[in-house]
Amino acid sequence: MIDFIKNRKYAYIFSAILLFVSWGSLILFGLKPGMDFIGGSVLELKLNSNQIDQNFIEETYKEYGYQNVSIALNGDDNLTIRSVDVNEENHQQIIQKIKEKYNNVEEMRFESFGPVIGKELRDKSIKAIILVLIGIIIYLSWAFRQVSKPMASWRYGVTAILALIHDVSIPTGLYALFGHLNGLEIDSNFVVAILVILGFSVHDTIVVFDRIREKLKTHPTLDFKGVINESINETIRRSVFTSLTLLFVLLALLIFGPPSLFYFTLTLIVGTFFGTYSSIFIASPLLYDWYLFLQKNKNKQGKNLKGKK
Length: 309
Description:
Layout: H1 8-28, H2 35-38, E1 40-46, H3 54-63, E2 70-74, E3 78-83, H4 88-101, E4 106-113, H5 115-143, H6 153-182, H7 188-218, H8 224-256, H9 262-281, H10 283-308
Antiparallel strand pairs: 1-3, 1-4, 2-3
Helix pairs in contact: 1-6, 5-6, 5-7, 6-7, 6-9, 6-10, 7-8, 7-9, 8-9, 8-10
């Protein structure tokens, strides 16, 4: 049996390095908000051509004063162009210029939305993430309500949230780094990926915590360290195999999927990997360290009471 509690310091060091890099990237570079959050225009075209000149598209937009243009290829002849808000007159002129270069141009979609809508979407995204975190704490507190010793039920929820912060920080820091290196912007896909990571990661953590709850009832004489170690060892195979199944699917999507979903898929891969890692090496060891902290305080208070007597 692997002694995860004894070797937890190595996992802590590894995670500390990752968090230092992730938070450092966020502080230094920040996240670049995409057009989903600041407003803009989206134009989807089908050019019926295997050779799409992205530079020509960018230069066409620049002629009409639109400097920052994001072009994503969807298959061989479909592309999605994102830019700041384009008025209808310029939209028609841009389409006409593209038609002059490509014979068969089919406009699939054109949408414009202002910064007010973008701000509303950003606020809703933040609220969604906060509500998910609150919901997790409430659910775990309720699910573990019959477990009062040696840790109160709400402490399981708080520990799970700490592990989730770890899981979300790493892909978010990666986004900040890519944003600095190649201009990657966060969009609604990023928010969806973060919510998926939160759900998957907490599921893995709950599996381990639930086994801890069972063992506290069935093995009342076993110390808390032993309960945690046995629980992790008994659930690790299930957690790893479940994650590998998902990772294989995500890797296939990363390699063979459309370029527009590349960073969305990459975020899910990173989040899934570290979500599984944290459920094994971070969440339960953190719970144990919290237990040790409470025990030390309890012993210290006991000594102080004896000293007063």
